[in-house]
Design brief:
Largest sheet: 7 strands, mixed
Radius of gyration: 20 Å
Oligomer: single chain
CATH superfamily of the largest domain: Dehydroquinate synthase-like - alpha domain
Distance between the termini: 64 Å
CATH class of the largest domain: Mainly Alpha
Bound molecules: nicotinamide-adenine-dinucleotide, glycine
Number of helices: 13
Strand content: 15-25%
Order of helices and strands: EEHEHEHEHEHEEEHHHHHHHEEEEH
Number of domains: 2
Number of strands: 13
CATH topology of the largest domain: Dehydroquinate synthase-like, alpha domain
């Protein structure tokens, strides 16, 4: 008797001629060859991954591709945020050219958000654009970065300041690979999951409050959480692919987060998803101060993030931070600045985020000064 295939969910990102599917389920890497083969003009792909993911998951991917007669070579880059730079972009792009990857070929990104963003950008600029498949291996990448086509690198001036919108042709979110993820990275990825509840789905936030502690061990709940997150992201991206409007909602917590990441040098003092969690808590504080949401909302958000073992306050970030004025200046580098004015994603309650263009700088400065004071 053959085992029945593990259940998979599919979310379609409706973008007309650039529409694609996000397939979500356990063990998807082992059938990746069969998923990718129908997309190929010839049976050849180039895979780019990182040094941590390669020993854990690359052999299974290569076997799955070989099983479908797909020739594949792989490049392994260093792991970590610092890989998202000009040097590794050049290395990846030149390697793809050496592999003779042509316009109709497929590039495969196997890794977390760092690999997905970097490889997606390399695919965007290679021969003026080749197609790519995302195989996200972190929770953060499965629920956020692999979907929606934002690709890019960091520069000395800030985070993700150089990049392109380039949609993948397929996303394979294998929820089993999350079992090898270090607990800290799993928690950080959860920062992006909870963001969806906070920005647009109060019932999802309620469900997460009840179930989120089971996500690392309960595959059914993990798949549900990834599915709901991807559904929300896909709906928003389909409405506003290039962030003219609603897509900015996905940046809940990110204006604070990007400033904190810059201040901590994109180091492991603060992972991106941890910065998002702190940023979401601050965004609810700011909303409450401005009388937009109930005073209880920031406490509820904090209590849940704390229960999940996430960083929540500026005092949870080790080492020195700039003062309030310095953090405000770093926010001035953010892509969400329009005509020098900072945009924030604020909330009228849990699940009710909106884009605010007119936040008084003094309120932000005071909030940051008070939050910094708790660091003692
Ligand atoms: P990451 O890619 O650095 O992965 C985190 C760590 O986990 C790395 O050391 C990696 O090697 C390791 N890893 C990955 N998969 C693993 C697995 N299955 N088992 C064990 N280890 C594994 O970081 P991330 O948190 O996935 O992504 C962060 C990046 O994503 C940031 O650069 C951020 O800007 C970007 N991002 C992009 C978007 C977007 O829309 N493009 C959205 C959110 C975040
Ligand atoms: N992670 C934010 C976006 O994709 O727009």
């Amino acid at each position: 008797m053959t085992a029945s295939p593990a259940p998979r969910d599919t979310v379609r990102v409706e973008l007309g001629s650039r529409a694609y599917e996000v397939r979500i389920g356990p063990g998807l890497i082992d059938s990746a060859g069969a998923d990718i083969a129908p997309l190929l003009a010839r049976r050849k792909v180039a895979v780019i991954t990182d040094e941590t993911v390669a020993p854990l998951h690359l052999p299974r991917l290569m076997a799955a591709l070989a099983a479908e007669g797909i020739t594949a070579n792989a490049l392994t880059l260093p792991a970590g945020e610092t890989t998202k730079d000009w040097a590794n972009l050049a290395r990846a792009t030149e390697w793809l050219l050496e592999q003779k990857i042509e316009r109709r070929d497929m590039v495969v990104a196997l890794g977390g958000g760092v690999i997905g963003d970097l490889v997606g950008f390399a695919a965007a600029i290679l021969r003026r654009g080749v197609r790519f498949v995302q195989i996200p291996t972190t929770l953060l990448a499965q629920v956020d970065s692999s979907v929606g086509g934002k690709t890019g690198i960091n520069t000395a001036q800030g985070k993700n300041l150089v990049g392109a919108f380039h949609q993948p042709s397929l996303v394979l979110a294998d929820i089993s690979v999350l079992e090898t993820l270090p607990p800290r990275d799993f928690r950080a990825g959860y920062g992006e999951v909870v963001k969806y509840g906070l920005l647009g789905d109060a019932a999802f936030f309620d469900w997460l409050e009840a179930k989120a502690t089971t996500l690392a061990t309960d595959a059914t709940n993990r798949q549900k959480a990834v599915l709901r997150s991807v559904q929300m992201k896909a709906e928003i991206v389909a409405r506003d692919e290039t962030e003219e409007g609603d897509r900015a909602l996905l940046n809940l917590g990110h204006t604070f987060c990007h400033a904190l990441e810059k201040a901590t040098g994109y180091s492991d003092r603060l992972l991106h998803g941890e910065g998002v969690a702190i940023g979401c808590a601050l965004a609810f504080d700011l909303s409450s101060r401005l009388g937009l949401c109930a005073q209880e909302d920031p406490s509820r958000v904090r209590a849940h993030l704390r229960a999940m073992g996430l960083k929540v306050d500026l005092s949870d970030i080790p080492g020195d931070l700039p003062g309030a004025e310095g953090l405000l200046a770093l926010m001035g580098q953010d892509k969400k600045v329009i005509d020098g004015r900072l945009r924030f994603i604020l909330a009228r309650g849990i699940g009710r985020a909106f884009v605010a263009e007119d936040v008084p700088p003094d309120t932000v400065r005071n909030l940051l000064a008070e939050a910094l004071a708790t660091r003692g």
